[in-house]
Amino acid sequence: MKIGILSDTHNEFARARRAAELLQAHGAEVLIHCGDISEPELIPCIAIMPCYFTFGNHDADMVPHLERAIAAAQGISLGWGAEIELDGKRIAVAHGHTHIDVRRLLATKPDYLLSGHLHFPVVRQQDGVRRICPGALHRADEYTVAILDPVTGELQFIRVRD
User: Fold this and answer.
1) What is the CATH T-level fold of the domain 2-159, as seen in this structure?
2) Burial letters for 8-22: b for 16+ Cβ neighbours within 10 Å, e otherwise?
3) Low-confidence ranges of the chain (pLDDT < 50)
4) Residue 134: beta bridge partners?
5) What PANTHER family does this protein map onto (predicted)?
6) Which residues, in sequence order, are CB contacts of 64 under 8 Å at separation 6+?
7) pLDDT for 81-92, tens place per residue?
């Protein structure tokens, strides 16, 4: 199974839709959005396959509306951060804007920690956990998303063009 990872869409409706379609074309079977969705109307733009969502700092005022939109799109809300299991791998997801959420998830020693907030792509090891930030689809030098095979660990960053 390949996982499409995106973050920091900040109401970039057309770009987010292109990103989801691009990830699907690269074989993604599930999408994980790492926060800063901003408006509930963005949810249906990317919900073209099973989706997980976490909230970021720009989502705070919209959480009830986002929760309803996620449910309507048959997505799964991970709230402010949670751990899921896909393809036998433990995957933690948080936006990354609060150290409390990140430390709480790192403490469980998942296989991966997916996060956003940085607006540029990053992959690194932290406390024995592979941390991945896909980049952003708003206010970035290059708009990027990522695709991960959690079993093999193969990771690819993909540029999303306007």
Assistant:
1) Purple Acid Phosphatase; chain A, domain 2 (3.60.21)
2) bbbbbeebbbbbbeb
3) none
4) 121
5) METALLOPHOSPHOESTERASE, PHOSPHODIESTERASE MJ0936
6) none
7) 999 999 999 999
